[in-house]
Write a structure and sequence with these properties.
By secondary structure, this protein is mostly beta strands. The chain has two helices and 16 strands. The radius of gyration is 24 Å and the shape is globular.
Amino acid sequence: MKKIYFFSVFILSFLFFSCEEVIPLNLETAPPKLVIEASIVWKKGTTGSAQKIKLSTTTSFYSDTPIKVLGATVFIKNSANTTFTFTEVPNTGEYRCSNFVPVIGENYTLTVINNGNTYTANETLKSVAPITNVEQNNQGGFSGKDIELKTHFIDPAAETNYYLYRYTYSTQVKSNFYVDEDVFFNGNPFFSLSRNKDVKAGDRIEISHYGISKTYYNYMSILVNIAGNNGGGPFQSPPATIRGNIINTTQPDNFPLGYFSLSEYDTVNYVVQ
């Protein structure tokens, strides 16, 4: 029986390996699209004058490295027609401004000119409620073993507010993102919540709350649902299927990817107890 078994295995192995054939895949690659990462963020207690915008293009199926866009013209204007110019940092795809003036409730217009195409977007800078305190629970989650953090704030009354929460753990490569709206807690104390079973005492966590517009809330809701809480977030190149608020005024069908947003944010650094 042992000989018969060995022979059968040998025949089956021969059939499997002799039938193996390399089939080349002809994967079509779509034309590259411009990706505009234009998240203007203003930390509470700072001037917010230093800002940056990143430009890249999508790549083929076989590459996961974005291509930097060089030589573009990038600027933002406010409602008074004041221009804030973003100057290219050589060979990086980043464009920086050192004299931006953030004003809560102000409307801003982004313009990017690249390869004969003009891209524009409009957005309003949103405020955020200050963080009041962080509460830790070592028996969180369904298992009762997750470390649960609640970051508290008081939502402003008589207005609709939308939030983006970001938890950056010192032991994780990617941040955790969550979105929220105050439909059920308008004008009341509330909190963001993050659970993590892999953190331990002494780990550092940077917690940030951003005030965002309704349209950016809708955009980020889709991204978070697709990528999960730790999908990389709004400050990285978005999936190709998600269209943002930036339009191509030269060739409307050739729209870019990415989003133009303006947010005030508050942040705290917390050490796990």
